[in-house]
Amino acid sequence: MMNDSVFAAITVATVALGAAAWGEAAGQAEQTYAERLGWPAGSRVVIFHIDDAGMCHDANVGVIEAIENGVATSTSIMFPCAWVSEFAKYLKDHPDVDAGAHLTLTSEWKYYRWGPVAGKAAVPGLVDDEGCFWPDVKPVMLKGTPDEVETEIRAQVDRAEALGIELTHLDSHMATLFSSYPFFERYLKVGIEKQIPILVPAGHMQHIAKDVPLLADVARQMGEKAWEAGLPVVDDIHAESYGWKDAGEKKTKVIEFLRTLQPGITEFVVHCTKPGPSFEHISDSGPTRHADLLAMTDPEVKKVIEEEGIILTTWRELKKRRDAMKEKAQ
Amino acid sequence: MQPRDPNAATLAAMTMLAILLHLTPARTFAEPTYAERLGWPPGARVVIFHVDDAGMCHDANVGTIEALENGVATSTSIMFPCPWVSEIAQYVKDHPDVDAGVHVTLNAEWGNYRWGPVAGKPAVPGLVDEEGCLYSAITKVMFRATPDEVETEIRAQLDRCRTLGIEPTHLDTHMGTVFATFPFLERYVKVGIETGIPVMLPAGHATHIAKAVPILGEPVREIAQKAWDAGLPVLDDLCITASGPKEKKTEVIQFLRTLEPGICQFIVHCTRPSETFSHISSSGATRLAELEAMLDPDVKKVIEEEGIILTTWRELKQRRDKVIE
ipTM of the assembly? Predict the structure, then answer.
């Protein structure tokens, strides 16, 4: 469901905006962002990233397990959700954990829902007839203004700051911020202004370009701006795991991903959750989320990472490497 | 942080209000009860068994629905800042006869599961703690929030209710926070009067609430008179259950056996706690006992034996609309 809506939204946006006019695909011979950030030529670097921390208690349990016992290296938090306080307490006790803001502009489940941190009066175009965010990306594109989107992004970042969380990065729930050029610009703007890295695929895009063909040029353009402003970017995003619902299939495909990985930095997106008896009242996505957790904690997956010489990293490390480059340049 | 007992918190808030205002003790009453003024026969004993905290979590919704459908509970109110509102709202829309109000919520009292103001922090910064949520403690709301912010948030919660397509039968107060200061209470009543929605106010003999909060009586009575004069029904008394899970049924039966004439709202927090609930709060056993008391056949029998009339806020409003004074 998530991949479909992301795909649909991005396709609509790019078609609407005539993204094809923005230039040709970059040449294949360029250096990867991994190399530009100081890793040896040919390095294959991965962030196993868990989306949706704070969404519910079961998500928090899954995130913590995948980071502590698995290969997951980073997570991002949904600040409009009610279980943020629980996860924030964990972060205070574990300040080394890589945690960003999973900027959330949609509320996609039927009965368990949330609204804007900024409040309806400040961002009326982001709110549906239940007082919550729209359930899907498209209405956000049609009813939300870029100013409202920026106001809500800042409100979520403000909540993180008030909680004492130093965000390692920003990314986008259901890819809503990639769904229109003006939204994408605001996301980039806040990232640059606050010097918080933003998730944007800007390199070879082996996976994301296959998933969402028309995103490539816009993303590359935004990625270059972010890079020039001193922020690290990734070469690729892999966002297909949510569609792999069976645990066995998921494990096989994660291993296949690792075996066929191209050089560069790839963020692999998962939604690790330990679904308790109540999760089914929130969503029927429990099995694929639980399978993500199983894959992240699977010994074979760990072994393949070692065998392939794949480097695991965090957003914090990407930022440090980017900062070190700036110092060198001076 | 230790989860707070909402009853104790309510008590604290009401006591605080009373101290702040240096009130005189409650006067004795020889006047007709509000039950009589609303057209019930003299001596009628009328009860609203009211389920607080609908929408707070899935388990609260399950408990609320069970208590209304299979138990003696007659009314509920919804916490609009909470994430399970859509679920109970759907139920209310599918069951339009259900009596459902706005449980005006100005606190987020649990440690790990928390919510913020519907109005948003920029609109009501004085209601928000360092986690971006409503304050855990009533005293923080008293000292940090302005009456304007309280009114803004009450209106935002009411707006969310109406946007959802629900016309609330009444307004009441989570943890009693709107009773914590007189200016808050004024705003709460003001919104009720302005919108024509009944507000929960114990304004008659106040036998139970005066025992729990001895010096609350007079200012509430005065403001309730305004609400009444503006065409809204009010209560004679409010009973907040204080017993532990094991004594709950006995307490409810005792309440029914010794009930005085008038309209009394008896507050429960019916919940069907799952494993998830234990991560929210340690109050699961008490809330389950309140659900079980509402479902108990003995309780139903005592209501019949005693000739106690069960009512709703909707009925109170309809009766008030017909009163000619």
Answer: 0.88
| Residues paired with residue B134 on neighbouring β-strands, in sequence order | B128
Do the Cβ atoms of A122 and B89 come within 8 Å? no
What is the DSSP secondary-structure string of B156-196?
HHHHHHHHTT---S-EEEGGGGGGSSHHHHHHHHHHHHHHT
pLDDT in the model for residue A1: 42
Query: Which spans in chain A are helix H?
Result: 2-17, 33-36, 57-69, 84-93, 137-143, 146-162, 181-194, 208-211, 216-228, 247-259, 279-282, 286-296, 299-308, 315-329
> Measured between beta carbons, which residues in chain A are less than 8 angstroms from residue B117?
119
pLDDT of residue B215: 55
Tens digits of residue pLDDT in A134-170: 999 999 999 999 999 999 999 999 999 999 999 999 9
Residue B55 has pLDDT above 90, yes or no: yes
pLDDT digit string, tens, across residues B234-247: 999 999 988 999 99
Residues of B with CB under 8 A from a CB of A: 58-59, 80, 82-87, 89-90, 111-124, 130-133, 156, 159-160, 163-165, 274-276, 279
Q: What is the pTM of this model?
A: 0.90
Distance from CA of B303 to the nearest CA of A (A): 35
What is the average pLDDT across A26-37? 79
Pair B101, B157: CB distance under 8 Å: no
Least Cα distance to B141 among B55, B282, B8, B12 occurs for B12
| pLDDT tops 80 at residue B12 | no
Could you tell me which of B234, B214, B155 has the C-alpha nearest to residue B25? B214
CATH fold, domain A4-24+33-329, is: TIM Barrel (3.20.20)
